[in-house]
Each structure stands twice: as structure tokens, then as C-alpha cells.
Amino acid sequence: MTEQQWEFYRLSVVEEWPESPHKAAVIGAINHKLMILALQEKASIDLQDSPTSTPQPRKITPQMRRWKTPQDL
């Protein structure tokens, strides 16, 4: 069972509860979790579709070094 399926199951159970502030808070939390899961899923799809570049190592210039190396002298 995925997280999303679990949250939908929880929602179906909580909807059977009598009306109360606790029920409203739990439904709000479940809806928030479902929104976060949807955003995460969208972000992972967008990330897979976007071109990625290979990170290049930074070039260290002599000015960036704290100590001089023999090559710098």
C-alpha cells in the first residue's frame, strides 16, 4: 500500500466519525498530506523530464588557496 493509498483509507475511516473539531483537524491533516504527496510526485516527474548536466569540478586558482604550492612559485 502506498502512502497515498493509506491516506485515502484514513480519510474514508475518519469521514465516518461524528462531526467534531478533532475530525475537522484530522481531515485537514490528511488533505495536507495528500497535497504534499502530489507535489512530491509532480516534482519527481518534472525532475526526470528535465535535462541534467554533469557537475564539473571547480578549478582552484592560486588566489583561492590558503598556502602556496611549489607549482605556484
Structural class: mainly alpha
Count every helix, treating DSSP H or I runs of 4 or more residues as helices.
2
The helix/strand order is HH
Could you tell me the number of beta strands? 0
Indicate the percent of residues in helices.
Answer: 55-70%
- pLDDT average, as an integer? 83
* β-sheet strand percentage: under 5%
Instruction: Tell me the distance between the termini.
Output: 64 Å
Note the quaternary state here.
single chain
Tell me the radius of gyration.
26 Å
Taken from the alpha-carbon principal axes, the silhouette is elongated
Which spans have pLDDT < 50 for at least 5 consecutive residues? none
Main sheet: strands, sense, barrel:
none
Note down, in words, how this protein is organized:
With 73 residues, the chain is mostly helical. It has a domain at 19-49. 56% of the residues lie in helices and 0% in strands. The protein has helices at 3-14, 21-49. The longest helix is centred in the middle third of the chain and has 29 residues, at 21-49. The radius of gyration is 26 Å and the shape is elongated. The mean pLDDT is 83.
